[in-house]
Write a structure and sequence with these properties.
The chain has about 375 residues and is α/β, with parallel strands linked by helices. The protein has two domains: about 140 residues, Rossmann fold (3-Layer(aba) Sandwich), CATH 3.40.50.11890; about 220 residues, Rossmann fold (3-Layer(aba) Sandwich), CATH 3.40.50. It contains 16 helices and eight strands. The strands form two sheets. It has a four-stranded parallel sheet with strand order 2-1-3-4, with helices on both faces. It starts with 5 loop residues before the first helix and ends with a helix. The mean pLDDT is about 95.
């Protein structure tokens, strides 16, 4: 049974498109961001609105391919396509862009995008291990802070940073609570609804209103659990989806999984649980606390990335999953290479079925993916029963 409040969550797409326009025209500054490594707290402390930028649809890719190679990650092409076609209201109303050196494809694309709008690039360390990497990342936080202060003519005080950290933590805690409801067996939420709720949070212009809506959704779902109303029955195979980020327009594998009868109970990716797992320490010096939180993100662009395996193991147990599907985009070399390590870990250490799907945003391979997903589910569906 689908929660009624999911209709209000879906309405946020249109509402936020209008709100960002109104906010910008009212003099509010907007900081556009693409990545989970982007510290929204610093933008909030600058009295600006941090928003996620569009990059999950197939439509603008054709235009992007006039300047970018065809054999490039669809997320990069979609992001750039939205930027050059003015079809993303959040990009259009952004005063500045925050980019990050997570992968080579994005780094080089940002060189082109930086000619469209003012851009600041945060240089991510190659590893998350050691004090040297942490100090380097802390200095990158300070550089971004100085950039916003200069661009917007504001002073970002420690008090403002602490207030912003508390607000962002409240948002993360609400989203984390929502996600954790699916640890219940059977799951009360579909993976599609979970994805939508978490993906749309990045476009929230009014964070307080967004937090209230998620808290109300949690209450409704908890009530449904008490009443024995669930999205799937107890025999549905429970799947952990890991890998690349997804959103509205790039959810075809998630959709195929659930149409085939699987209950996708946890999304480990960075548009799912990964960004919610660690909070910013509200007691520490803000720049250090932010550096620690964001560098704790177990992304494939970091080496080594054993923290991802630790998270997958923990989530697999907490959510009682029956199998793991690793989604990778074509030409996403870090996730594609890392999938070999994930496969061996899932099979040998967790003793769970594993499937990797490499695809793009198009619908051209839907039939092939359906066959592979159905075979994957059949490999353990009897055990789940």
């Amino acid at each position: 049974m689908r929660p009624k409040l999911m209709e209000q969550v879906e309405e946020l797409r249109g509402i936020n498109s209008v709100k960002i326009k109104e906010a910008s025209e009212g003099g509010k500054k907007v900081v556009g961001m693409y990545c989970v490594f982007s510290p929204q707290e610093i933008a909030l402390a600058a009295d600006a609105i941090p928003v996620t930028l569009c990059g999950t649809k197939q439509e603008p890719i054709e235009e992007a391919e006039k300047e970018l190679p065809r054999n490039l990650c669809p997320l990069i092409k979609s992001s750039y396509g939205f930027a050059i076609t003015d079809k993303c209201p959040y990009f259009y109303f952004s005063d500045v862009l925050l980019a990050e050196t997570t992968c080579d494809g994005k780094k080089k694309m940002y060189e082109l995008m930086g000619k469209i709008k003012p851009m600041h690039i945060m240089n991510l360390p190659q590893t998350a291990e050691g004090e040297e990497a942490l100090e380097y990342w802390r200095k990158e936080m300070i550089r971004f802070k100085s950039f916003l202060e200069e661009k917007f003519g504001v002073e970002i005080t420690e008090e403002k940073l602490r207030d912003a950290i508390k607000l962002a933590n409240r948002e993360r805690k609400a989203m984390k609570r929502l996600h954790e409801l699916n640890a219940h067996k059977p799951a009360p939420l579909t993976g599609m609804d979970m994805m939508l709720a978490q993906w749309l949070k990045g476009f929230n212009v009014d964070k307080e209103a967004g937090i209230r809506l998620i808290e109300e959704l949690i209450e409704e779902v908890e009530k449904q659990i008490e009443e024995g109303k669930f999205a799937f029955d107890e025999n549905a195979p429970r799947v952990l989806l890991t890998g690349v980020p997804i959103g509205s327009g790039s959810e075809k594998v998630l959709k195929i999984l659930e149409e085939a009868g699987a209950s996708v109970v946890v999304l480990e990716n960075c548009t799912g649980y990964k960004s919610l797992d660690v909070m910013v320490d509200e007691e520490k010096e803000p720049m250090l606390a932010l550096a620690e939180k964001y560098l704790a993100t177990p992304c494939s662009c970091l080496t080594p990335n054993t923290a991802r395996l630790d998270l997958i193991e923990r989530l697999a147990k907490e959510y009682q999953v029956d199998g793991v599907l690793d989604l990778t985009w074509q030409a996403c070399h870090t996730y594609n290479i890392e999938s070999f390590t994930v496969k061996n870990f899932v099979k040998d250490q967790l003793n769970l079925p594993f499937l990797q799907i490499e695809t793009d945003y198009s619908e051209s391979d839907v039939g092939q993916i359906k066959v592979r997903v159905e075979a994957f589910l059949e490999s353990f569906i009897e055990t789940a029963k």
